[in-house]
Every structure is written in structure tokens, then in C-alpha cells.
Model the fold of this input.
Amino acid sequence: MFSIAVIFTCVILTIFIRFIFHVRKQYNFWNEKGVPSTKPIFFFGHLKDFIFGKRHLAFILDDAYKAFPDARYVGIYDILKPNLIIKDPELVGNILIKDFSHFHDRVPASSNSHRLNHHIARLPGKSWNLIRSKLNPTFSTIKLKSMFDLMESFSDTLDSYVKDYVTSNKFIDAKEVMGKYTTDVIGNCIFGLEFDALKDMNSKYWDISQKVFAITPKSIAWTILRSVNPILLNDNIIASNMYIFYSAGFDTPSTTLSYCLYDLALHPEIQERVRAEIMKVLEANNGILTYDSLNDLVYTEMVLSETLRIHNPGSSFRRLCTKTYPIPNSSLVLKPGDRLTIPVYSIHHDEKNFPNPSKFDPERFSEENKKKIKPYTYLAFGDGPRICIANKFAMMEMKICLKTLLKKYKFSPCSKTEIPLEINPRATQAQFPPKNGVWLKVSEI
Ligand SMILES: *[C@@H]1O[C@H](CO)[C@@H](O)[C@H](O)[C@H]1NC(C)=O
Done:
């Protein structure tokens, strides 16, 4: 009996010691390669505060990014796995475009077998090509034009929804309104269904939208898909793409729009300029917005671009090295399976790329200044072959929405407005949502 206990203890101890050695060896990875890296925390690597829901991943990456001002890249550990954070914009360009063939893939999901992981953002090389080319026509100019009318058809609903807040003199949570609006739009444009999130207080789709991000995204997404079309469930790839269309199509523009209203509320003079431009474009077109006149909303687009620079929902994205890659002008060689991260938030907030980075300044995106932006330092939609497939769709949706809101209403800060907004630390890297909503006062002009 005694000896069994001793043997058992020895085995456990040996395993434990080996584990400690393994972790320590892992944490030497970047040192051995001469890559700058801050000290990891035992077992958690650099992700402790993220895992415990204390800080958003973007800020954790930003600490590493800032720790070595002149480095072209820095190393961190995702728990035990080394992850290279790319800082040098030229190298970002190489990875996303020039040497794309070495970085075809995103980092695979932990449970690759899950049916909803076969969507376009996650699919590896070959299947990605195939699906991307099949999905591209979804966002062709002709399709976009027909979606324009669908989107426009929600303007009245949005208008009366907001009007209720004006009449009842209640503060409005821009995050909630914009979430409902984009739920309706995506439901109609992509699924061809009336989700009625704005009209119906008890819309099950709005309820689902909330849950998609609040609890367990995948299981809830299945609920939606099942209620949408049971036949789709036979095809993992279609189902997965419906899921990403829904989540990217609902969450990304709604967060961006709510941040935009927040920034406009804090900068009344900019809000006034956007409104003036919208009024001018409407006047020139008999009071309505047309597909072609979207292009005349130049300043509005500058404002949205600046919103996306400061609060980009895709706060970072990852790539997987699939073919040996010697980093140019460096002795570091990436091997297949190595992970890397493009820290969009940090690149967008780097003084070297955007002077006075926390200042909301749409002029950075004027025709003239835009040319001066360093290549690959503005990554609101990513870049290269894997650039966001729906960027035009999103821009169109956001412009239509701002037109509807600003033409009649004025947004300003109120006692409930949180300045600055706290970011939800539990969000994934593809989301950058405010934690407590975006409370504003809305009044009629
Ligand atoms: C590497 O160095 C060469 C020569 O200085 C330069 O032209 C090139 O842009 C550099 N490449 C990267 C990715 O930094």
C-alpha cells in the first residue's frame, strides 16, 4: 500500500516537473530567436487578463506593441503558443498581399470540427478560394443596388423608433438602436426575412442577436439557422457562411454606427458638417438618397473612416504561416504552423502612423491627406485577397442610416454618457464593443 502511494506521488511529481520544464522551455522560444518579448506569466503567457475577462485583447497586444518602440515585430505567448505581433507596416503589407501565398490561412479554430467553423473568415486556402469566388457576386454592384432599396425601406421604421425617444424625452442607447437596425437590414438583405427588431419589442431575432454575442455564439446561431431554413443544415459551408454573414453583418456595422454617433455627439461641429452635407445631397436629388448619390457623401465617409480607425471592430486579426517564410531584412524565419497577429488597434493608434492618435479628426481622410497615410497602416477592412468581402455593403448601410438619423435628429451627450467609453473586456478580437452601451440624448432639429 505504502509503495503504491510513493510511486503514485513520484509519478505525479515527475509529470508536474516535466510540465514546468516544458512551459519554461516554451517561454524561451522568442528569446532563442532574438525576438523582443515581455515576460510571460507562468502558464497564461500574455493572456491572463484576457482569459479572466479583465482586459480586451487589443489592449494586451498594445502593451506588447508599445514595449519595444523600434521593433518591427514582438513576440507574445497565447498561453503556451508563440504568437508574433507584426508592427512594421511594410511587413504587414508583405504578409497580407505580396507574400500572401505564405499566409493563406487564419489560425484554425480550437474545434475545427464544429459545423459553423467552415465560414469564409476561417476556411483554409483552397476551400476559401472556392467559397470566396462563389460569394463575391453577393456583393456585386447590381446586388448592392438592389440591396440599397431594401435598406432604404427601413428608414421610416428607424425614424419612428427614434422619434419615440424624442417624444418621451428618454435617453437613447445608440448601441441598442443600431443593433436592432442592422439586425433588420441583415435579415432582409441576406436572409430575405422580416426580423422586425425595430418594430417588435419581442422580436425573437433581436433576442437572438443579443444572445449570439452574449452567451454561446455557435449554439445560438444554430437556433437562428434552424428557424430560417432547416435544409441549410445539411450543408456545413452554407450554414457557416450564413452564420458569419449574420454575425459580421449585424455586429460590425452596429458597433461602428454607435461609436460614430458617440463621436458626433462629442463633436457637435463635425456633426453639423455631416448634416449639412447630407442635406445638400438630399436637396440635389429631390429629397431622397439614391444609390449614385452615396458617392457624394464624401465628408460622411471621412467621418466613418475615422470612426473605424479609432474604434475598429476588427481590433486585430491573425494569420497562420503555411509555407516557410524568411522575414525580409531579418534573420527570423517563420515555419509552417507559426502564428502571427496584425494588431489593427495598435497600428491605428500608433503616433508614428496617425499623429495625435486619440483625437477624432476626420480630416485625416480628406482627399489630400488620405494620400499621405502610410501604406498598410489603415486596416479597417483588412487588406489583400482576404479584405472584408462586405466593405461596400457596410459603408452603404452606415451612410443610409446616418442620413436617416441626422436629417431630423441631433445627438448630444447626456448625464448617462460614459466618457471615454469602456470597452467590453470579454469580447473576441473581432469585436470591440462598448461595455455599458452608448447613451445619448436625442432631440429633433
Ligand atoms: C528590406 O530592405 C530593403 C533595402 O533597405 C528595402 O528596400 C525593403 O523595403 C525592406 N523590406 C522590408 C519588408 O522591410
About this structure: The CA atoms of residues 66 and 346 lie 8 Å apart. The first strand starts at residue 73 and ends at 78. The mean pLDDT is 85. The two ends are 85 Å apart (CA to CA).
